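Open question from group meeting: does this chain pack into something compact, or does most of it stay loose? Before anyone orders reagents, we agreed to write out a predicted structure and look at it together. Recording both the input and the output here so the notebook holds the full record.
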Amino acid sequence: MKNAFLLQTALVAAAGLLVAGVANAQTRDVPIGVAVGGYMTHVFKMQDRDDRPTQRDAGSIAFGSPDAEIWFSIRGVLDNGTVVGGRIELEGQTESDQIDETYMFVERSDIGRIELGSTDRAASKMVYGAPIAIPGYGTIDPTGAISVTNTPAGARTSGNLTKFISVDDNQGVNLYTSANRYFGSKAGKGLQFGLSYTPDGCQDFSGCGGGFGSTANAGQISKAYTAAANYLESFGPVDVAVFGAYNRFSVEADSAGSATNGSATVFKSSGLDGYAAGTTLTYNIGDGSSVQLGGAYKREEMGVTRSGDDKRNVYTAGLRYLTAGTTPGSIGLGVDFAKTKADQGNIAGTAVGGEDEYTWYSAGLTYQVATGILLFGGLGYYEYDDAISAGTVVAATTQADNDSKATFGVVGMRLDF
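Structure tokens returned:
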């Protein structure tokens, strides 16, 4: 408790230094302004899946997974060079959280940056890993693999494959060291650190109780600390990016679990943690063409058992070739892979053993029509193997067949504006 209090005090003190810099600047050099941007993606997708006995060889065709956001970026520059601003991200389709992110920031190029509000934590913003084969469906993209999978309720595949679970978009504070990186050979290269604190795992005004939120929400995280660092450097034609992060959090209260679908209860616990590491290597061939190679590893505790194993291990890798970067006419070819192993831990409070396994493969093709206009398509395959075999009796309940697999195809367009 004392260590947590000291860390919170340090965060407040660091934030105070930046705020003090703002207070000392009496006038604005550049008035506050608002810029509008965002993106829009629409896809046509096809799938042939085996999902439980009732969905064997079930085909599915849909215009689906629309993903669009409108960004309102607020920015002003004080006469001492301090940048003050904010950002509001509005979903472009009906969502459970219609406002995706909303936060303010203060930044000094010679000191660092502080972000306060609902946004991704530092580890997610600083991550490097496998190149994305299919835009919107990669192992780092926010959508991850979720938008094309149809695994049952008990399948423990939720959460981005590379990023930490349950820490993004919650109300919290991020601190970064200066954008003028340390130990780099040139501007924009070198080492940067990030630190985040999320006191309560809530996002919106109503969800946070309109003031002080509850500290007994079943399965909700609280007191989440995240530390991250990345290092960028160039060695001749090779650009190197290395990433590492650590996350530690508490779970507020036990959540309910059903014995009928194989879902795992989340137990109240203090000190659940995880770590991740990744890299992206880019070989610049010349004339704008390049080859990207990368991957990441993540290990985190899930909080699904009061004793014993409750780890989730994720391995990702990818390779991509670009003929001319983001220049109009550029063609991209990529492949990626992910493997997840998660300890089952328990079913509705009854301890069980074994690991749930999730495997993902995809290959993608992109074409840069013009600046901000990208066509893409790809094929993929995923497979989920439940640790608990069909027919197994747990807590006097016979478990269903939760195994699933599918082959899918995606064709779409993305606009960035």
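Observations to bring back to the group:
The longest strand covers residues 28-51.
The two ends are 46 Å apart (CA to CA).
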